[in-house]
Design brief:
It contains 17 helices and 10 strands. The strands form 2 sheets. A 7-stranded mixed β-sheet has the order 6-5-4-7-8-10-9, with helices on both faces. Strands 1-3-2 form a 3-stranded antiparallel β-sheet. Helix 3 packs across helix 4, helix 3 runs antiparallel to helix 6 and helix 4 packs across helix 5.
């Protein structure tokens, strides 16, 4: 299919496609500004054409900067302008999209990733560093914390409940562990929805765990404990401890995915379940061409997932699009039987449900 498309493409049409792509990139940065400053929400609340001065005043921002931002939005056909009186209007149906966090959150990933743009160029050189320290990703860490709360409805309560065997365990008094729990949003929701279980959340980031502890306290959850921990070296006392271990969008990011999978295998009970949620992708580039989010996935991977993994000695650098074939191979190598792979509702993620392979 790709070959036929190329045969029909002229130099002029390709040039126009690249031009449109670059233009969209510039516009996306200003979309991010509109979300981060609350300008879209401000204009939606105003609900009628207003001057740049009125909009800036309502948003608590400098008029000159708002006026320049409006220029990008008008010429990008996002916001309408009345040239007679220089008033600006955000149509309600557009406001519905632009004020939707689940839709707009990915616009902020682009400026966040560009924080390490120069570092990535250095890493790509043959004599450059292997990777980039996670400590350099200040904006990206903030974005991840926001993204955690806006997983497009993909809370663990939802995707774990869709697995009958796991739901049965959650309705009892199971021991549950989330690897890479970040700020604990999903785990706290799960603990609230299934209160008879005991929960542990692990993350290597102390700021994330501090936030998770505050979240659990604010929700008055007594059945959740959070740990600052390297999941490749979990406590010896945890061998065979958990009925359910799960992780969301984590395994491809870590330096040694193989070691984490081995540890998960160790801490899981023989009749327990491991649920791994990863970006829906295939290992070969060509197989990902039909996936709408594939270019974004590879870009995030190039700027964040891969370099932060490769920064560590022995880091595998799997990347966000490591794919179902590689995932199944690695699960099999650590003696997991991946007996089910299903898509999430938005088709962006795959849910791998696994059990231990037990020697006969």
């Amino acid at each position: 299919m790709a070959t036929n498309e190329n045969e029909l493409e002229s130099n002029e049409s390709f040039e126009q496609r690249i031009f449109n792509t670059v233009q969209s990139g510039f516009l996306t940065v200003c979309l991010s500004v509109g979300r981060a400053t609350g300008l879209f929400n401000t204009m939606a609340k105003l609900g009628e054409p207003r001057s740049s001065h009125d909009i800036a005043q309502s948003a608590g921002l400098k008029e000159r900067y708002v006026r320049e931002w409006l220029g990008a939005m008008v010429t990008g056909r996002i916001i309408d302008v009345n040239p007679t009186n220089d008033t600006y209007y955000l149509q309600p149906h557009r406001a519905e999209t632009l004020c939707n966090p689940s839709t707009m959150i990915f616009s902020e990933a682009i400026p966040a990733l560009c924080e390490v743009y120069s570092d990535i160029l250095e890493c790509m050189k043959t004599d450059g560093p292997r990777g980039v320290s996670y400590s350099k990703y200040n904006l990206f860490q903030q974005w991840l914390e926001t993204k955690e709360e806006l997983r497009l409805g993909l809370l663990p309560s939802k995707y774990l409940s869709n697995i009958l065997e796991v739901k049965t365990l959650l309705e009892s008094s199971a021991m549950v562990c989330e690897i890479g729990c970040a700020g604990g949003f999903g785990l706290c929701q799960l603990a609230r929805d299934y209160p008879t279980c005991t929960y542990h959340g692990l993350d290597i980031s102390k700021p994330f765990i501090d936030n998770a502890k505050m979240r659990a306290s604010s929700m008055n959850l007594q059945n959740v404990t959070f740990h600052v921990s390297d999941a490749t070296k979990m406590s010896d006392a945890w061998t065979g401890k958990y009925d359910v271990v799960y992780c969301f969008d984590v395994v491809h990011d870590v330096p040694r995915a193989d070691l984490i999978l081995q540890e998960i295998h160790r801490v899981l009970k023989d009749d327990g379940y491991f649920v791994m949620v990863e970006n829906k992708s295939y290992t070969k580039h060509a197989d990902n061409i039909p996936l709408p989010m594939a270019p974004a996935l590879y870009t995030v991977s190039l700027f964040a997932c891969m370099p932060t993994s490769l920064y560590y000695d022995g880091g595998l650098g799997l990347g966000a699009a490591w794919g179902v074939e590689k995932a199944k191979e690695m699960l099999n190598e650590v003696e997991f039987d991946c007996f089910s792979i299903t898509d999430t509702a938005n088709k962006m993620y795959s849910v791998y449900t696994c059990k231990k392979k037990l020697s006969k």
